[in-house]
Amino acid sequence: MIKAENLCKRYGNNKVLKGVNFNVEKGEVYGFLGHNGAGKTTTMNILAGIIDYNDGNIKINSLDMKENRTNLKGTIGYLPEEPKFYPYMTANEYLAFIGEVLGFDKNKIKSRNKELLELVKLEESCNRKIGGYSRGMKQRLGIAVSMYNNPEILLLDEPSSALDPTGRKDVVDIIEDLKDLGITVFLSTHILSDIERVCDRVGILQGGKIILEEKLDILKKRYLHPIYDIEFEKNIKEDIINTIDKDWIEEIKVYKNIMNIYVNEDIDSRDIMKVIAEINLPILSLNLRRSNLEDIFIKVVSENE
Ligand SMILES: Nc1ncnc2c1ncn2[C@@H]1O[C@H](COP(=O)(O)OP(=O)(O)OP(=O)(O)O)[C@@H](O)[C@H]1O
Q1: What is the per-residue pLDDT for 110?
Q2: Nearest CA to 136 among 86, 184, 172, 188?
């Protein structure tokens, strides 16, 4: 649905995108991850047709973006990181204004406003002035605005980053609803728990390139493994790591009296007990936990640095 090939963008001498490749499939929620300043907004602005790129190409529905800009205009909706509204208008008035700009008639505006206010759960506050809205309500209104023209693709630039947990949950719930409606969502964020909840696939942007693009469930299978955290009574020497040699151990970390054993598959807990017994030191506690997407992100990014 969206295919970027060797996308390059520079601002003066600052090369921000140095050959970015990604592929977003129809109906999926694609999580576009990257540190601050990695170039996420730049990529979003390019996809939205707001800024131009220096090299490479983008295809949307197999159409070249540069050659088909007008045709593709109605295909894409965009919610920028900080959407701007007229604070003296109500949400209903603002959406009606968008409808008028798009050339919709009065009846169509009425029905579209109703549908969208319902989608973003603002029906009850639609006659209040936007100036008094919370950040979360403004973001939800922004989603309604970007959806007005019924686009096939929605670009959301950090829609939940500045929100509190409740505001974030509301936005992620709406993204799930959009997915059910068959909308393709390109979501830039650095909030990994949101990605984990709603994305089908992720691409990690680092150093001007996509360093990893993968389905979320495959990524989890490949990287999310059990970790045993063992607390000993006394500090342990780091060289004890060299005495432990098991195929199923991926990595061991030691810090003071804590040892973390990263295993690469679900093992029989008796096997870990045998390893601890060989260390032959009294232990205070043993906990099993699973790594999360944050661990994956840190691992992939640090491997690439
Ligand atoms: N209009 C511009 N002129 C010059 N440099 C720019 C411009 N827009 C962005 N940049 C630079 O491009 C780089 C990427 O910025 P961009 O906003 O795309 O990153 P980002 O990943 O969206 O970051 P954030 O998460 O902080 O929003 C930064 O170094 C930024 O300073």
Answers
A1: 95
A2: 172
Q: Determine if ligand 1 sits within 6 Å of the CB of residue 38.
A: yes
2 in contact with ligand 1, CB cutoff 6 A: no
**Positions in the chain short of pLDDT 70:** none
DSSP secondary-structure letter at 129?
Answer: B
pLDDT at residue 92, as a whole number: 96
**Closest atom of ligand 1 to CA, residue 34:** 21
- The rounded distance, in Å, linking the Cα atoms of 246 and 278 is 12
d(CA 105, CA 201): 38
Q: Which are the contacts of 256, defined by CB distance < 8 A and separation ≥ 6?
A: 235, 236
Query: 48 to each of 24, 42, 84, 121, 260, how far by Cα in Å?
Result: 15, 10, 17, 25, 45
Give which of 293, 289, 290, 134 is closest to 198, Cα–Cα. 293
**Contact call for residues 299 and 223 (beta carbons, < 8 A):** yes
Give the integer Cα–Cα distance in Å for 225 and 218: 12
Question: What CA–CA distance (Å, rounded) separates 21 from 3?
Answer: 7
Q: Does residue 136's CB lie within 6 angstroms of at least one atom of ligand 1?
A: no
